[in-house]
Each structure stands twice: as structure tokens, then as C-alpha cells.
Write a structure and sequence with these properties.
Distance between the termini: 36 Å
Strand order of the largest sheet: 8-11-7-12-9-13-10
Largest sheet: 7 strands, mixed
Number of helices: 12
Amino acid sequence: MNNEYKLTKFVQAAGCAAKMGPGDLKQALCHLKANSEQVLVGFDTSDDAGVYQLSPDLALVQTVDFITPVIDDPYIYGQIAAANSLSDVFAMGGEVKTALNIVGFDSKNVSKEALAEILKGGFDKVKECGGSLLGGHTIGSPEMYYGLSVTGVINPKDVKRNNGARAGDVLVLTKPLGMGVLTTAIKRDLLELPLIKHCADIMASLNYLPSRIMKKYRVNSCTDITGFGFLGHAFECINENISFSINSRNVPFVKEAYELCKAQVVPGGSKRNQKFLEDKVSYSSSVDETLRTILCDAQTSGGLLIAINKDDAKEYIKELEELSFGYAKIVGEVIPKSSSPIIVC
């Protein structure tokens, strides 16, 4: 990135909110049902965004997300928060059209100048994927948060659900894991600047081009990896006919996250994810506890997890090489339904 980092202890000053775990969220949403036949994607499969059909060839893709600061530079934080929000549209295969800012402003700890930088970072990311920022809403808050409400469009025939994987597909992950561990380390002043920049570059990179490129290939499902971690979001992709077999040796993660995780530099969300998945994932004895935690690590602006025809996967990864910082890999395969939804070896 060209922007000079402004290490102002912004993350520590602004604090960090706890995110609701997957089990609690599912319980909160269980009584909400779609009330229109035009709703093509609603609450039923914990998909990344809602899809509402307007005509035979046009549907809206809608989502909203926001995060507390994960890095000390307000402009980069704005970029990361926006990339995180925009990603849900890309995970559905959609094209971003408009966005609205959502801001909780901690005026005691965050200057107006810093707020302007946050909004500029978000604006630049919306612009990067061809969208238009239309405004938004700001409130005073004891805790800083920022994100976007995003509207995209898609042909209903092209929607990529998270639960469409078929036995025989392979699984491709387009960004590395470890961001939850590493952003926790940033808050504890445990990382050197080059590694902070590397993490920021990964989180601020859009899933826009990986989403566009996947349309050329035989892709049966897609989701993005965020707060529920790699295995948590993978579990949401399981349908009644399949299980996922994950090769843990192939799952990319930023290498420094391993030793930090081993030293218990782990966010609370990652621990909640791991507990939720205890009876849903079968691990080989060769997968150590540290790696199990990384596989459940709560991500910010993570990559896409794509179920793709096995004959297309290598060519797709080749196209992604520069976009994925060289991390994109085949991480497993879709198998007929097994005794466990996810098997990790």
C-alpha cells in the first residue's frame, strides 16, 4: 500500500466489541422467515447476503456489516472495514452498485480528522469495485465502529449460494487464515511494522476480482470467511448430501500466527467458534491443538471458500496468484455425506 501508516494507538483507544457466536446467532434468527416469493436467499441457509428478485433477469443482493478498529491507521482501518462489508456481495457472485456508511463515532478518543480518514478509506474501496457511495448514518458511541450497508445486483440464475457444493468438487481458499490471532497481537503491541503492513494488505484487498474471475469456471458454491472462522463458515456450506474433507497441511495461514496462537494470543471469537464446532468436526490425531485453533480463527475480511470443479481449480488458482499474495490453494474436497460434516486430516 502507498499510504503511510499512522501508528496512533488507534486500535487500543477505540476498543473492541465482542461478536455474537454462530450458535447464539442461529438461535436469535430461528423465528425469522422470508415473507415473499421474491426473496431468493433469506435466513434459511446462513448465506452471505440476501437476494431479492426484481425481474426474471435482475435481483438485488443486500448486506450490512461493520467492525471495530483492527489496526492503528484510520485510513487503512476504513479500507479493511469496507472490504469486509463489500465481500458478502462478491461471495454471492454479485456486482456492487451502492453503499451507505454506518459509523459509531467515539469522539473522546477519535479525532474528526481520523474519522475523515476512515471514511476516505471506505470511499476508495467502494470506488475500486465500481460502486457509488450515497451517504450513510453516524451516531455518537463510546466505541468506534465503521462499515457499510451494500446493495449489489445479479442475474438470479447466477447466484452462488453457500450450500450448492457437490461431491467431487474441490475446495479453494483465496486468502490465508490467522487474521484474528494477528490483529489481537497488534492490540497487544506484539507485531513489527512489516508484518502489520502485510496483514493490512491482505485484509484490505477486495474479493472483487476473485469473484469476477470465478464466473469463468464451474463453481457450485461460494462463501467468504469472516467472524465464524474457516471451519465455521465451511460448516454453513454443508448440505444433506455432502461432507467436507479438509487437508490441514494445505490450508494457508500467515506463518507468524502459529507461534502467537501457541502462546495463547487468541481472540475470544476464535475460542467460541472452536467450542461451537466441537461436535461438528472430526480431527485426525495429526492435527495439533494450535492448528485446530487457527482453523477456527475469527477472520476480518477473509478470503472466499469456493467449491469448484476439480478440473478447473488449478487454472483458477493460477489466475489468482498475484491477487491472493500467493496464498490461494486447494484445501480439500467435497465428499458424499460422512459420519461427520467436516473431516480434518
